[in-house]
């Protein structure tokens, strides 16, 4: 009886093995148009702001015309935030479209918060306190989440060694990148573009699909996404 149960258990849990030849045949049966692939690549280049690469790819692939000036201006805003020149970034955003900040109070607060962080980073304590009181405190009174973020930012002033303080991560470059990414997404949305490129989402879907299939079959899977090379199934 136990032998029979073990046999049926092995049969139920054994994975189907798909050879490389079978797998490659299945892949060739899936037809993906070159135009769709080109649009996917262009979507990534435009969204991420690779101006030169986007223009070169457009010429080589024959895809639709792209507005280089629009991408260039958006990247100028992003670079300004990343370099800590937030005031310049705000001016550039308003030059592009004043409604972006007028209709997005959270984004405007985060930009002003980043200005405060830069003042603290540069040791301008008095100016930082004045700026926090005049520009950010009124917004904090209107929004509890803003008040919490403001209090965390002002707390930087209470520590001599900010590198070891509980809120020291606000002075990391990653905070600038986070704010720059938020601005970039808002500008894209205002221009009726998707705020995130499609390619990373498709790669996440690929990983998820492979993980699901791993439970049921041994097949030639893609181990390294950077090369997209198929690996022979392991039995």
From TrEMBL:
<dbReference type="Pfam" id="PF10607">
    <property type="entry name" value="CTLH"/>
</dbReference>
<dbReference type="Pfam" id="PF08513">
    <property type="entry name" value="LisH"/>
</dbReference>
<dbReference type="InterPro" id="IPR024964">
    <property type="entry name" value="CTLH/CRA"/>
</dbReference>
<dbReference type="InterPro" id="IPR006595">
    <property type="entry name" value="CTLH_C"/>
</dbReference>
<dbReference type="InterPro" id="IPR013144">
    <property type="entry name" value="CRA_dom"/>
</dbReference>
<protein>
    <submittedName>
        <fullName>LisH and RanBPM domains containing protein</fullName>
    </submittedName>
</protein>
<dbReference type="InterPro" id="IPR006594">
    <property type="entry name" value="LisH"/>
</dbReference>
<dbReference type="InterPro" id="IPR050618">
    <property type="entry name" value="Ubq-SigPath_Reg"/>
</dbReference>
<feature type="domain" description="CTLH">
    <location>
        <begin position="70"/>
        <end position="127"/>
    </location>
</feature>
């Amino acid at each position: 009886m136990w032998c029979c149960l073990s046999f049926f258990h092995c049969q139920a849990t054994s994975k189907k093995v798909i050879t490389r030849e079978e797998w490659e045949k299945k892949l060739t049966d899936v037809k993906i148009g070159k135009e769709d692939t080109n649009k996917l690549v262009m979507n990534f280049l435009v969204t991420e702001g690779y101006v030169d690469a986007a223009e070169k790819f457009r010429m080589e692939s024959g895809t639709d015309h792209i507005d280089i000036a629009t991408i260039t201006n958006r990247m100028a805003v992003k670079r300004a935030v990343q370099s800590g020149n937030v005031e310049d970034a705000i001016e550039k955003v308003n030059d592009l479209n004043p409604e972006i900040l007028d209709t997005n109070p959270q984004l405007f607060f985060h930009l002003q918060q980043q200005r405060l962080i830069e003042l603290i980073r540069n040791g301008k304590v008095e100016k930082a306190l004045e700026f926090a009181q005049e520009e950010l405190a009124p917004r904090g009174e209107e929004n509890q989440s803003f008040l919490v973020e403001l209090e965390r930012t002002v707390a930087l002033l209470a520590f001599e060694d900010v590198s070891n303080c509980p809120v020291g991560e606000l002075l990391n470059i990653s905070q600038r990148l986070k704010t720059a990414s938020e601005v970039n997404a808002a500008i894209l949305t205002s221009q009726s573009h998707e705020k995130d490129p499609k390619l990373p989402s498709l790669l996440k879907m690929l990983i998820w699909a492979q993980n699901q299939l791993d439970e049921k079959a041994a097949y030639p899977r893609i181990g390294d996404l950077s090369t997209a090379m198929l690996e022979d199934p392991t039995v």
